[in-house]
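Q: Joint fold for the lines below.
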Amino acid sequence: MSALAKTRYFWRSAAVGLKHSPFVHFIAVTTIAIALFSAGLARGSARVLDNLLASLGGEVEVTVYLAPELGQDEAHGVRARVEELSQGQVTLVPPDAALERLRTELGDLGEALSELPENPLPAALELRVPPEQRTPEALQALAKELRALPGVSGVDYGEQAVERLTAIARALRFGALVAFVVVLGATVVIVAATLQLAIYSRREEIEIQKLVGATDRFVKAPFLLEGLLQGLLGAGVALLGLWAFGRLVGPTLGSLFAFLLGPGVAAPWVEPRLVLELVGAGCGLGLGGSFVAVGRFLRV
Amino acid sequence: MIQFFHVYKAYPGDPPVLSDINLSVEKGEFVFLTGPSGAGKTTLLKLIFCAEKATKGQILVGGRNIARIRESAVPYLRRNIGVVFQDFKLLPHRTVEDNVSFTLDVLGVPRAEARDKVRRMLKLVGLEHKADSFPLRLSGGEQQRVVIARALVNDPTILLADEPTGNLDPALTVEIMDLLTQVNIRGTTVVVATHDATLLSRYQKRTVGLERGQIVSDEDGVKAARRMVV
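A: Joint structure:
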């Protein structure tokens, strides 16, 4: 018995199968391609969302208000301590600079500030938090530590905005995951149903194979290969679609949402990792569908 | 070669198809199974190549008890048994050569070797010139010869034929039966199910009569032929 001869037979038989029922296989390949294209789009969108969060996170600034009675040396001392605790970039904003900034921000109304008998603004430290500390939990913990420092009268970091953004991102990710699982499940069912049609049209061949002594594995192998080929073809079509989408629609989307997305939007939609993931998922879908389909036709 | 010991076959809710079958077929023997439609001939053949399982009793094929055979071992048993059907069971979209080669594909025989074997087998059944034809282009007799070639190409020790001439005219019937006789002379055990009495008188082989699922006669060829004439 030759394993090579059998392998050749399996591939030949799988190719004949694809040729034998082109429409049925076209439907299966298209279904896989649509599912993987959607998955690829979701993956790309998730990456854009990550970029968005990172860019908004970069704007998260923690303002540490210093006690009014603090002298300049003491303020520098607190600044060094804050730098040490946060590992971030700290800028000392003296009361005069703070008042001047407020005056500029208020525009015409800023003149009213001249009427004040004395500067009410305290000195403050503006802290740009490093990326790894931009989660709500890390920011909360950092704020708690900073509040406990001597010479600090208050800490503000836009707590609610950060929490909301993170919650939205989490919900979107979860929704995408659920949708992805549903689409994958539906795809396996559709692929299995179409493959069953293809297998049904070859039931006579299966019956004869079984009668002349073919094992179940031997009968299944070409159909599993057909599923695998469908998965590969589906993944190829999906990747081609994503590449075309990235080339044709990507730049337009990028310019439309440039104000939100910031850097990273120009990144290619088809990356090596995505190629591997979609090819793997395609093979899994094709094999899964054919595995489900082939089982019930083996009883002779 | 084939032994049945008190074999029964029944389907739930129906009377038994086979009852208390005791039968022994020796190696190299040629046996006719005869009887009216519904007598149980096809079921008996199906039990031999494990297309059906006996409800009760023991069946030995080549010394192996197939009443207790595991599902996974059935394909290996079938590789030693060639089966010829009345309705041919040929693949219409494959050539004669591919149809015959089908059995060897299952065994993983390399293509060149398979091609040689198939050509030799087609020569034996007189169809070497039709290797590239499609089955539907052949006559009934030629199609049945392709089936016989497919059944014999891997040199099985047993050949089972279920009404192999049922769809053929008298001339083609003789052609096919002569071929089965030749196969038997080469050493293959042949069991033919038929209800055609003229075959029994012409070929004078051991004849086992079945009626309503029971063996009612088991005669040598001459005796059976004589009874047919009377």
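Q: Anything notable?
A: Chain B has a mean pLDDT of 89. The domain at 2-80+156-229 of chain B is CATH 3.40.50.300 (Rossmann fold).
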